[in-house]
Amino acid sequence: MNPPASAQTDCEYVVVGSGAGGGTVAARLAEAGKKVLLLEAGGDPRTLSGGDAIDPNNRLPDDYDVPVFHALSTENTAMKWDFFVRHYADLARQQRDSKFVKQRDGVLYPRAGTLGGCTAHNAMITVYPHDADWDSIAASTGDASWNAQNMRKYFELLENCQYRPLDRELGMIGINPSRHGWNGWLQTEKAIPESAVGDASLIKVIIESAVDAFLKVGEPVDRVKWFLESQLDPNDWRCVVDNAVGIRYTPLATRNHQRNGSRERVLDAQAKHGLRIETDALATKVLFEGNRAIGVEYLKGPKLYRASAAPSGDAGVVKRALVSREVILSGGAFNTPQLLMLSGIGPADHLRSHQIDVRANLPVGQNLQDRYEVGVVNRMKFDAWKVLEGAKFAKGDPQYQQWANGRQGVYTTNGAVLAVMKRSSAAQLLPDLFCFALLGLFKGYFPGYSALFPQHLNYLTWAILKAHTVNRGGDVTLRSTDPRDPPAVNFRYFEEGTDEAGDDLNAVVDGIKFVRTMTEPLKQQGLIAEEEQPGDNVKSDDDLRQFVRDNAWGHHASCTCPIGSVLSSDFRVLGTQGLRVVDASVFPRIPGFFIVSAVYMIGEKAAAAILARP
């Protein structure tokens, strides 16, 4: 039998999940003087002990702190939640992907069960969404507070931009055409330029090849204007308004070139404003009186969720947190729909198939969306990039010493050299391809993938990310009624989903072809030994389409509790009272390029909406 439930009765709000959405809204409510309890299923990544794909011994807090270790952090045993998802329901199609793990019936999809959520292991890229992402929500809901002009205020509220020094000085006296934030809680930096150009002559060739490729795209006058205004900053408001394309650098969420994010925000709110944080607390059910949410039931104990590395066999201690005002779910695109469905909110037929009483018949877990990504992987004709010579991605190597002693060197970066934003076709109203050059071998997620980085120091991967995807055919469903079991996740890629015309597929193929125009000069100069993926033999559009079908992946799961069909425009779950969702699942359509900045923004917006109520 489970232990008797104990009650928490002294909080106004319970927030489930400490990631970009939950951590942001919890901290802002606490800052406003509200009594808030934040429940996190994992522990604090900087105080835990866990190994990774390189070393089974403890690698924390370095795996969390060091920017270039972000891939290793996704496989750190103390904080990782490994979901194994299906890209296709059709097994034959799924098995064509070399990343498919037969024993787990899926492809690795790294998540983080730790304080800070997935901000504890992401690549820290902070790129602003497109204005159309916000305006479309405003139009569909009739809620003008979602328009792009208003939403930029939330970005300015949360950002503390460190990489535009002149603009920062002007911003302090009220002159701010770039509309960056200068006083927020999330510090953004540009990796030290010298760190990324240690191979100055070679990087120069890469940049020149990108410039040459863009000369053929058009809009030369606009690109000069955007360069002068933004200085290659993708978050400059003037470029955002213009839906600018071109070469950019990638701003990072770092403080003194060390990861910062939701974890730092909630710990600061705990110290200064009394935010209560309970770690090792796995939410299992929303508690109701009638249709009003009155609290959350949860299990207390480490590693209770079975996506954890070496999950605990303990049952956990059953506890309850009761609220006087609201319950806010921020578990992300997989776990929030799971918790709602376990609580009787979801598709009626699916709930009844699990003998769950239906409280609200809503399309929870449907509409699952993601990016598509592929890598064009090139082996260079030398042993190692100069900036990576002797690198072991570990304490004691020369690059680590540079980072630890002076926050210098390549470890201040996330491995990206530069990025290119472009449209996949003239018909695209918005730039939908984000192509970025990585000094490393990266072809997607599979167990042990992060160990490839120190083993292969002579690779150049152009990662191609397809934004504004058409496909809305994925879903999250319950495997069982046991809240410790991860749900079933199926993205139904490309034609198996709703991209029947092949728009997503053709866009990714365009990205590969564009990237090849940038790598061709390196081949001609004898700098690239071989394109290993897709491979020089994969040339025709049909062959490239098949390559993309077989190898694409994603890591921005979203849209499973969308505003409009599951939520009101102020994040309330339809058919209930006192229950909101604030995480990546709220979007009707996946926004922008990298979703974390949009999720931080909706965390701020949700807090404002909650605080506006009497």
Poorly predicted spans: 1-6
Say how many strands there are: 22
Sketch the major β-sheet: 7 strands, mixed
The level of helicity is 25-40%
Could you tell me the mean pLDDT? 93
Helix run count:
19
Principal-axis shape: globular
SS content category: alpha/beta
**Share in β-strands:** 15-25%
CA radius of gyration is: 23 Å
Distance between the termini: 42 Å
Question: How would you describe this protein?
Answer:
The chain is of the alpha/beta class. The chain contains 19 helices and 22 strands. The strands form six sheets. Strands 1, 2, 9, 10, 11, 12 and 22 form a seven-stranded mixed beta sheet that branches. A six-stranded antiparallel beta sheet has the order 8-16-17-18-15-21, covered by helices on one side. It has a three-stranded antiparallel beta sheet with strand order 3-5-4, with no helix packed on it. Helix 1 (20-31) packs parallel to helix 19 (596-612) and helix 9 packs across helix 17.
Attribute tags:
614 residues, alpha/beta, 7-stranded mixed sheet, 6-stranded antiparallel sheet, 19 helices, 22 strands, 20% strand, globular
List the helices and strands and how they pair.
Layout: E1 6-16, H1 20-31, E2 36-39, H2 62-65, H3 70-74, E3 80-85, H4 91-94, E4 100-101, E5 106-112, H5 131-141, H6 148-158, E6 159-161, H7 165-171, E7 186-188, H8 193-196, H9 200-215, H10 220-230, H11 237-242, E8 246-248, H12 262-273, E9 276-278, E10 281-289, E11 292-300, E12 317-329, H13 332-342, E13 345-346, H14 348-353, E14 360-361, E15 372-380, H15 398-406, E16 416-422, E17 433-438, H16 452-455, E18 459-466, E19 475-477, E20 488-490, H17 503-524, E21 528-533, H18 541-551, E22 579-581, H19 596-612
Parallel strand pairs: 1-2, 1-12, 2-9, 6-7, 12-22, 13-14
Antiparallel strand pairs: 3-5, 4-5, 8-16, 10-11, 11-12, 15-18, 15-21, 16-17, 17-18, 19-20
Helix pairs in contact: 1-12, 1-19, 6-19, 9-17, 17-18
